[in-house]
Design goal:
Structural class of chain A: mainly alpha
Number of helices of chain A: 18
Strand order of the largest sheet of chain A: 1-2
Order of helices and strands of chain A: HEHHHEHHHHHHHHHHHHHH
Shape of chain A: globular
Low-confidence stretches of chain A: 1-9, 55-61, 463-490
Subcellular location (chains A, B, C): Membrane
Mean pLDDT of chain A: 90
Oligomer: homotrimer
Domain Ammonium transporter AmtB-like (chains A, B, C): 72-440
Transmembrane segments (chains A, B, C): 15-35, 68-87, 93-112, 124-148, 154-174, 186-205, 225-242, 254-276, 309-329, 350-368, 412-437
Distance between the termini of chain A: 41 Å
Keywords (chains A, B, C): Membrane, Transmembrane, Transmembrane helix
Family (chains A, B, C): Belongs to the ammonium transporter (TC 2.A.49) family. Rh subfamily.
Chain lengths: 490, 490, 490
């Protein structure tokens, strides 16, 4: 305790910066946003519907967002927060910084999201669905944080998150609106993006300071059980995450596909963990992370007709790949590329995210009107006939809008293009962000203070420590006794 | 261990009393309540609707209560329960007593609630919405419990809770039905009421025994991480709490406002905590509590058109106020007023609750038909035109009932009146309850047993303790060795 | 550490078996299941409804499954998982193995469930409601796991679970479809079945190795707080579990009844725990388990008109019975019948499950058309008039199908018969399963390795252990010092 704590420079400036950021957010949200129509008291329509609904026991059903939102909310704050508490002396920072970062970034995400969807008065509508989108967006910087856990100041994370969300928004917009690529569960736009962005930052950090072994970089018995709270809540609600942007039969399919995929990855991650470890025992790192890889891997294709067996196979594959990644790839990239990845986000979000993109492209290549009927054009809007070819039946009875007349293979090509764009955007912007972070505008953490809650928190002296203190005092006295003994006996 | 455990007098009587209370509750619920119409098998209408709904794939949507109820349920039991586990040796009592107290009090709340809404047969209807109201009511005594945590027997808490719920019900009824004050998120009726009631009890306790420093009144590294489970779940589901009594656009607005406000308080609480502490580090007490203050502060106005910027500002203000309260006010009122406040409920529920009441009054003063249209009369029913002035359009198309023709300023005045009434009711009834509790009918906890789970729980001897025991044995032997040494060497 | 770890034979084979099981599951799910109509993109109807719904702001309400599913999901993985973390050195296995076992078994349950409901193409439909049923089914083997916690390999649990789910499915099918017995909350089919199946397995284990005291079979201070996470989440969402298979007024009634019953059991479990323990303190084992007994005990009758007082009384009785079971019955059956029951599932699921069955039969005997009107035939379909007697009004307006014309007493008889069949099926199949498990095809755990995470997990050397290690080194050196002393002093 106490030693080296002050090596973090500029704490006071960081605090002032944090106040400043919140003030800027207040001004921006104040000037740029307004209640969406569904949340506006000044729309007589709402009142009328409420009344007639209530009156005739025939109330307007709540939107799906209202139901899925709490689950995704739990994933972001409890899921990511507790998942990262696995380090023995960094649990308070894991849960505390996730809390702080997410509270800042959810506001940033609302602004980013809003700017893309200005109404005619240059105001962005706030609604349950924009809140849900913001929650999903926040997942990306939290994933990047996983790669950097224990090695940054909170202000570095805040700064990184703000930059990342801006690039995230642009990347998602290009891929969704220009390339018209499909990614229901955001496996490319959130998971792969977040992972490679974070790894790129870590890569830049590694150029300066080669990653070293650190005595605090490991779990304790209790911290592993805390981390499982995060794992299990993420695992449970992943079907909500992957189906959040869908509705109707697509939503139900996404829930079923995700459950199957993530169950497959859970079982195969356990099995692979035991297969490759000494004495065939399970490894907590694998169980905490790789069990979730199936949720990522099915994300892009979650709403597609990939069949139950397709979901199970891709999930199982992801579980296998993820554990092997922890065992063989992570040490390799740390040693050779000097990329240190505290939580192993490359294995949970990076590779499974890429896998998801590829699987999504394959499913897109296989999608025929035979197996989807007109829903094909709901799921892949770019495949819909163009304006001339669109029949009035498709338009009027099924609400299909004119598309780009793409073939299955063309759509698959655009899916792969979206994956490539995402990986490039993430890596390049990550490297640039890393270079800025290295300038220590946002402070930095000294080697000896890494993975230590004492950097961020006023910690109480503790009994256990007193216990160990006691021991060392005894040892000391003891050794003096031993030292004296010979003298005494002489 | 072992010493002084028996200083709690009358454990046997407390147990008997607990049985007795449950028996009385069974009799009262048995005689006073019945299933509400929506839960009654004996209403043919339900069966018919079920059938026709199921038949035509056009099922009746579930009521909002069915969706919000589980979230509020989690807040009460997990949220409050784990939030209070921050003490190093009182975690089992924190979560265990919250569990017990809430299970008793939810039944009491159902009765209190029911008595106000008797049907023509003098029966109170049980329904999902009465269950939800009961959950909300239980929050008040749990907040009071926060002020007294570690210093009472369980029976003192049960007794206090029963009295408090009765006064709570009366206070809420007067303010809602006679003063027609609005408090969507119950920031006045639950938070301010619960806090000042608990502080009043603590004030009476402090007259008898001056609050002293206690070696167990502090966290451990692990207990702080447990407490964060409570904090984060409360934070996540607070939008549900504040929107529980609303529907339609008001509900959506309450969700948006609460998310913004509580995000603001989270960021500002972190920043303020770092600003005022040594070395600009975060303090776990602030992070666990003050981050939530925005949820309280927006409560009264949650459904109003306070604009996104209004929500953010009031939340940020609450976060600031709450941390400053912990730092400067709590020590002051403990020293000068002898009011000991274990969890600092004054900073999380008391001041932010008052702030919410004032903010609600300001918003009410600013509310015009221009910004709300006819919804103004849905949100502030007392502002609706009286019977003569009410147009048939308002009545028939929008379901507006005749009101009191109040002006905006009049409504604001009534809001302040409701706040004042609430604070008075809480303080006075709290003092009286405290005086009764001091008579030790419900037992009492001796100074040396405070904040110690051993008062309530059969604790196992533990390894760690064995470890420490071991240490002391070694020390003893060692010191004997040291004692003998000189003799040996002489 | 390290000693005796290798006494578990065939770890490698277990891993291979786990891979094999997942591959078989993939093949079976691949060949036997398909998306249900609601999740099928190839049904134009879905698209049309989506469009028209979305178009006119009159969207199809989500099915209840979509709302209840997440709650039951939390109960299975977080609830059961953390409930079993109470052992001081088996927490990682408790939460980790629950995770693994459930992920395997939810797939098995989907297949079992599906095989019973093949469509005309010999395909089972996957839907939200089949996912929900699978979650409920998984509870049965998790309950059995509670009886065996700490004494088996993971493969023994997987194997047991697969066999158990097959018998579970057959038992439930016979009782529901042939005996037409009602068990809304599955208290007989899941709780009683799971408990007696597990106890039967434990009985067989006890024939071979008499249950002995084990130094690791106890909680630590922290593990008890972890376990409460499970308890409280189970307690909170139990109303969802009991109402999962119901809708309309039955569902609301089930929620109300379950809340009352489980509140009663909570209070009475606390009171009884204090009554029978030394110094009238609470016991964590009772609080973690017996507080939930009311949820089980009301299960069968949850949807019936058992009145609020009925729900409270049966819940309170269950709480009382459960605590007395822990205190007096568990030691007895361990000593006399050599049935070791790690979590005391007999007290939480076994006896309360039987109580639920009996209470359900009594309620069935008391059910008259007077108190239920035509809903009687919705709740007890076998009591509906037969084809000749059924009026066209009942058929057309209320959707009542022809039944077996049973009287109230006949229905009660069938309820008791279903309970008896369930207990017999569970016990007999449990004994057979136990005999197979004893053959050590799935490995076995040696006496000294029981209740020890080191059997399943690669554990890191820990600080604490280092601490204790330190102590023993000091002791050693110290004792040498002491040994030398006399020599020195001579």
């Amino acid at each position: 305790m106490g030693k080296g704590m002050l090596s973090v420079c500029g704490e006071k400036q960081q605090v002032v910066l944090l106040f400043l950021i919140e003030i800027i957010l207040i001004v921006l949200i104040g000037t740029l946003t307004t209640y969406g129509p569904e949340a506006n008291a000044n729309l007589l329509k709402n009142l009328k519907e409420d009344y007639n609904g209530n009156n005739e026991h025939n109330r307007k059903p709540q939107s799906d967002s209202l139901r899925i939102y709490p689950n995704v909310h739990v994933m972001i704050w409890i899921g990511f927060g507790y998942l990262m508490t696995f380090l023995k002396r960094y649990g308070q920072s894991a849960i505390g910084l996730t809390f702080l970062i997410s509270a800042v970034l959810v506001q940033v995400a609302l602004i980013c999201e809003g700017v893309l969807h200005f109404d005619k008065n240059n105001k962005a509508y706030l609604s349950l669905s924009s809140l849900l989108s913001a929650d999903v967006a926040v997942a990306a910087p939290l994933i990047s944080m996983g790669a950097l856990l224990g090695k940054t100041t909170y202000m570095q994370l805040v700064f990184m998150g703000i930059v990342e969300l801006i690039v995230y928004t642009i990347n998602k917009y290009i891929n969704e609106h220009h390339l018209m690529a499909v990614d229901a569960g955001d496996s490319m736009y959130v998971h792969a993006f977040g992972a490679y962005f974070g790894l790129a930052v870590s890569f830049v950090f590694g150029r300066k300071d080669k990653p070293k072994e650190h005595h605090l970089e490991g779990p304790s018995y209790q911290s592993d059980i805390f981390a499982m709270i995060g794992t299990v809540f993420l695992w449970l609600f992943w079907p909500s995450f992957n189906s959040a942007s869908l509705d109707g039969d697509s939503q139900q399919r996404a829930i079923i596909n995700t459950l199957l995929s993530i169950s497959g990855s859970c079982v195969i991650a356990f099995a692979t963990s035991a297969l490759i470890s000494k004495d065939n025992k399970f490894n907590m790192v694998h169980v905490q992370n790789s069990t979730l890889a199936g949720g990522v891997a099915i994300g892009t294709a979650a709403g597609m007709m990939c069949k139950p067996i397709g979901a199970l196979i891709i999930g199982s594959l992801a579980g296998l790949l993820s554990v092997l990644g922890y065992k063989y790839l992570t040490p390799f990239i740390q040693k050779r590329l000097r990329i240190h990845d505290t939580c192993g986000v490359h294995n949970l979000h990076g590779m499974p995210g890429v896998l998801a993109g590829i699987f999504g492209a394959i499913m897109a290549a296989l999608a025929t009107q035979n197996s989807y009927d007109y829903s094909l054009y709901e799921i892949f809007p770019a495949r819909a006939p163009n304006f001339e070819k669109l029949t009035s039946e498709m338009r009027n009875d099924y609400g299909i809008l004119p598309g780009n007349d793409r073939t299955a293979l063309e759509q698959a090509g655009y899916q792969i293009l979206a994956l490539t764009v995402t990986l490039l955007m993430a890596s390049i912007s990550g490297v640039i962000t890393g270079l800025i972070l290295r300038t220590s505008v946002c402070g930095s953490v000294a080697e000896e203070d890494k993975f230590d809650d004492a950097v961020h928190w006023e910690l109480e002296e503790e009994e256990e420590e007193e216990g160990l203190h006691e021991i060392s005092k005894i040892k000391e006295r003891n050794s003096r006794a031993n030292d004296q003994l010979p003298m005494g006996t002489i």
